[in-house]
Design goal:
The chain is globular, with a radius of gyration of 20 Å. A hairpin with a 2-residue loop joins strand 3 and strand 4. It is built from 10 helices and 6 strands. It folds into 2 domains: 164 residues, Sandwich (Jelly Rolls); 103 residues, Arc Repressor Mutant, subunit A (Orthogonal Bundle), CATH 1.10.10.60. 29% of the residues are buried. The chain is α+β, with helices and mostly antiparallel strands.
Length: 278
């Protein structure tokens, strides 16, 4: 590993033939193909890769790159401490923890290009070039600049994930679309995902909120929030190595037993069964 920070790790690696890498990230790794061609394989599914591709690699899944032409990669690995704000931080990085969970829960975990929107891909490419520039300089404030740049990258990835979710859905009420976006991006912040808070923020009568939400979503607000958190829990237990009790705590469940009961009720399987693929 070439560049280590408490909250992220960056590596540039070149391969004429792929070699296994040591990966200890809690969530996922972004991969930027700097040069080369070949096949990206995730769980035995293979798709071609080429220069300027951007991929997402979850922590706990089998992957490799089949190199056809000598290749170089920029790997950006996120750790849980990325989202713990430092005492002198101007940005509340902890609020981005929800977005990372949202990205992980709504990615298809197949190989191939991560970002479908051409404009967004070009923007992320520019931001990754900025990360690469600071990585190579390794000067004063380089780690801070990289950290803040990663916030922008996560924002664009979140936007793409939400576009994919809403694709094909007819939402005529723009306020409701904004409400769904807000819930998705702050799903594990219990203080911000309450009827009282959301009613005030979006100018909806508190007494009317539940009816308004069910009319537009087709399900109760409480059920929508619970299912969203369970979908994140399912992704975290499959695609990361995070302990189940830690997943439960981070997603606002009382304990791992509470999360397990809810998962069995809605999915018919407990967390250990899901992790083991039973």
């Amino acid at each position: 590993m070439d560049f280590l920070h408490d909250s992220f790790a960056i590596e540039i690696a070149g391969y004429a033939e792929w070699q296994e890498r040591s990966r200890t990230n809690n969530f996922f790794e972004l991969v930027y193909v700097l040069e080369g061609t070949g096949l990206q394989s995730v769980n035995s599914i293979k798709l071609p890769f080429r220069e300027n591709d951007i991929h997402l690699l979850p922590a706990a899944k089998c992957y490799k790159y089949i190199i056809e032409e000598a290749s170089r990669f920029l790997f950006v690995r996120f750790t849980s401490s990325y989202f713990i704000p430092l005492s002198n931080d101007q940005v509340d990085y902890s609020s981005w923890f929800s977005r990372l969970n949202f990205i992980l829960a709504n990615h298809n975990h197949h190989p191939g290009e991560l970002i479908k929107d051409a404009g967004d891909k070009e923007q992320v490419k520019r931001l990754l070039d900025a990360v690469l520039y600071e990585y190579e300089r390794k000067e004063i404030c380089s780690s801070f600049i990289i950290r803040t740049t990663l916030v922008s990258i996560l924002g664009i990835l979140s936007r793409n994930a939400q576009k994919s979710i809403l694709k094909g859905r007819m939402i005529s009420d723009s306020k409701f679309a904004d409400l769904l976006n807000f819930i998705s991006f702050h799903i594990i912040n219990k203080e911000m995902i309450t009827v009282e808070y959301l009613s005030e923020r979006f100018g909806i009568s508190e007494t009317y909120f539940s009816e308004y939400f069910k009319r537009n979503a087709g399900e109760r607000f409480q059920d929508y929030v619970l299912k969203s958190r369970l979908r994140i829990a399912e992704s975290r237990v499959i695609y990361t190595t995070t302990p189940i009790k830690e997943i439960a705590w981070e997603l606002g469940f009382t304990d791992s037993s509470h999360l397990n009961r809810m998962m069995k009720r809605h999915y018919g399987k407990g967390m250990l069964q899901i992790r083991k693929g039973v």
